[in-house]
Amino acid sequence: MNKQKKTTLIKISLLFTFLLFLSCNDDLYNNHEHNHGENKNKITLSQFKSETKIKDFKTIIKSNIQAMKSTNRTAELSDFVIDTLAIQRHISQNSKTTYSFRIYPISGISLSNENYNLVYRLENNNWEQSIFLIKTNANLEFSEINHLYDSYLESNSVNLRAYTACISTTPVTYCTGQSVCADRCDATTSAGCPRGECYRYVITTIGDCSTGGGGSSDPNNGNPSDNSQSGYLPTNPYEFTPNMFDNPVYDDPNYVNAIKAQHFFSNLSYAQQVWANENVENYNQLIQYRIDNNWSDESEEFVEELIEGLEANPQPIYNSSDYPGDNEGMPFEWWNNKEFIIENLKMKDESNLLEEDPNEREILLFMAYPAQALLHIKNSNFALNTSVELVENGVLTRIHNGKADAFRHAYWNAFDTAQFGSYVTKLFTDAHEWNSANQPLESQMDFYNNQIGRNIGQDLSFYSTPELVKQTILNEIAEGSLKYLTPLADHDGNNILPNTLIKFTNN
């Protein structure tokens, strides 16, 4: 079996395993319910589907929360994974039924006192969805509930915005079957509970407290049809019991990461998914990077850009007799060895004045582009050594933030671009600046000079001589095309002064 077919099967098997795990939700619930069967309003996904007749239920909900014009940080959330292991059903006194699910944001991080609920309610014979953010205080009491999304209002072009809903709590008695109880049971009959009781809390949402709507457990209070005020009043106020069930599987980092990985994969284009299937090792390294960076938006942007580049420009499949670094005595598939990359692909000069280990993003890029990585490191070290020589010969000054620094960045980017193009060069040199300890002025200067170098490199070729490239960059410095910092402190550490400015190199 060739490597391409093998990796494809590996990826497919991984996805199959994930889907199989999801399909076992009902079984997981049944085991959980067997041990905690006191609440008869805790139902299974199959019960929910049977009662609502919803057949196309999906475990991922996509909602346009951004449209709500809220300053709340949660307004940035749009995709959630739904906990289907235990669903909370609530039947109000006027016989209206709601179902609430715990949901977890795929992007972003929720705080320990924050719980998200997806609530289904019947409106005009359609099951509509709402998303609530429920916050608790230090005593684990409900302190705040925010209405973040409503499918009914969205579909009817009502101006959406997040708001804080009024809250009322009502203790409701349930039978546990543990002991005799004489109290009214389940708010349905006057008969006593034949064996035991426990208490649950019902939250009633009425509307935006700021508009005077709500504050009562009676869902008919207020003016439910008025949406004209700055606050939002639901078209049909309703009650629901918040779903606060703890299902340990959803707290398992492996499960959470599997959910997020599947969601990320499903949002790739078909061509990108094909690339992922054919390059499992590279793809899994990218997913691990996202996990290590807590699935941040920044990591998503970087990975998507990298995948787009790799999908558009597929890299060769190397063998043990023909691979980058073979002539230098590097082991086969060194690009899959993170420790080897850190130890051997350093940016340094011959005098050891400067030595930098590759950062996390650079390592990923070196793994994805091994041939270009070796040229990149060679060019970076050559550019640094050339800059040091120019300072020693009195041609330029200041290897750190001075004109010699401007030369180094432009020289490096020009050589890279001439040898393997501006796209990968930009990926490499942008990654080098990522998460650095540079001052804002330093980063601004470096990004600018990098771009000028890439522009110059597009007019060069793989066979352009070092002397030609050097003289071209020096001419650009003399003409003022590059930028440097001045004045600077006498030392080469953090040499930025309060009056340091960015200036063109002809000044």
User: What is the strand tally?
Assistant: 17
The 3D shape can be described as elongated
**How many domain modules?**
2
With helices defined by DSSP (H or I, 4 residues minimum), what is the helix count? 15
Radius of gyration (Å): 31 Å
Largest sheet: 11 strands, antiparallel
Give the helix level as a range of percent. 25-40%
| Beginning-to-end CA distance, first to last residue | 63 Å
Bin the strand percentage.
Answer: 15-25%
Structural class: alpha+beta
Which parts are unreliable, with pLDDT below 50 for 5 consecutive residues or more?
Answer: 3-37, 66-76, 180-190, 195-200, 211-236
What is the typical, i.e. mean, pLDDT?
A: 76
Molecular structure report:
The protein is elongated. α10 packs antiparallel against α13, α11 runs antiparallel to α12 and α12 crosses α15. Helices cover 39% and strands 21% of the residues. The chain folds into 2 domains: 189 residues, no CATH class; 172 residues, no CATH class. With 507 residues, it is α+β, with helices and mostly antiparallel strands.
Brief digest:
It contains 15 helices and 17 strands. The protein has helices spanning 3-23, 25-35, 45-52, 151-155, 253-266, 270-278, 280-292, 297-312, 338-344, 360-368, 370-392, 403-420, 422-433, 440-457, 466-479; strands at 42-43, 60-62, 79-82, 87-91, 97-105, 114-123, 126-136, 142-150, 163-174, 181-185, 189-193, 198-208, 238-240, 347-348, 355-356, 483-488, 496-504.
